[in-house]
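Protocol step 4 of 5: obtain the predicted structure for the target chain.
Materials: sequence only (see below). No template structures provided, no constraints applied. The aim of this step is simply to have a reference model before the mutagenesis design in step 5. Sequence pasted as it appears in the construct record:
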Amino acid sequence: MSVIRYATVLMMMLIASGVIAESMAPAADNISGEEVFRKCGYKYPGKDQVSRFTVLLRNDDGQVKKSEYIRVWKDFDGIDQIADKMLLFTIYPPDAKGASFMRVAYTKEQQYKVDQWIYLPVLKKIRRVTVRDPGDSFLNSNLTYADVAMRALEDDTHKLLGVKKVKDLEFYVVESIPRETKPLYSKRVFWFEKTVDWKDCSNVRIDYYDTKGELQKEQFIKWQRVGDAWIWDRVLVRNRQNQSASVFELSGVRINTGIREDVFSERSLVQGLKLEGGGEDSPASREDGKKGEGTGDVPAAAVTNNVLDGSAEGAARK
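Step 4 output (structure tokens):
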């Protein structure tokens, strides 16, 4: 899907917010919510990834803050009960350049525990960062640590609400209610794009409802294909209760580069990395940015700026 088409669909989905129950059609193919999750919920991300990671944050006063990182990620596939590891090396803003961050995420057997460390060159020290609450903000964004953590299918009950049509696209809409007694959200509603072939079905939107049952935030996801892997290209999160927003972008993605396990170390935090070439490139990295950022057709600003300057919010109200 091109960025222009995605922007159009995004606006339509924003307009459709809050009217799900009124315009939902029943699913004609007699499939359950759990089956939709099984077929569409998991996407192969590659064995490892190297990319440029950009984060744009708009607070409720409309001020925008930008950060850029080199992101190094590796799937550990449950070995030693480790789900994955990630390194972030700050390249922007200039006064934060040289700072780095490492996260180790564990599997369900370890209650999805997270270990993380940060290196600040000014202090010349590595500090362990403790996550006291899964509801804490991830990178000061609208996503929490719980939102970016792995979650097993059986952790929730899944009900197919029906099929939602937005312009020329159709979406399976699935309501997921957590089984735990003190959940972070009362429910989440997932939108999966309905496609001819199940292998092309993907999650493009998540609505989060707070413990009082009120819509708290919306997350929109645009995917890119790199080889046989599905990598998110752009993620947009809008808090509906305070109007803050976050945008996450991955560009220049390379997968399956053969990153060694020992790369994820305190030494790398301090000294940085020199990664060898290889692996499969995203279209953006092959084109070297000549046709625009992210997907190789138009700049990412076609989607991003509308949200950060508030015009998407205005479009949704019209």
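Step 4 remarks: The domain at 3-317 is CATH 2.50.20.10 (outer membrane lipoprotein receptor (LolB), chain A). DSSP finds seven helices and 14 strands in the chain.
Proceed to step 5.
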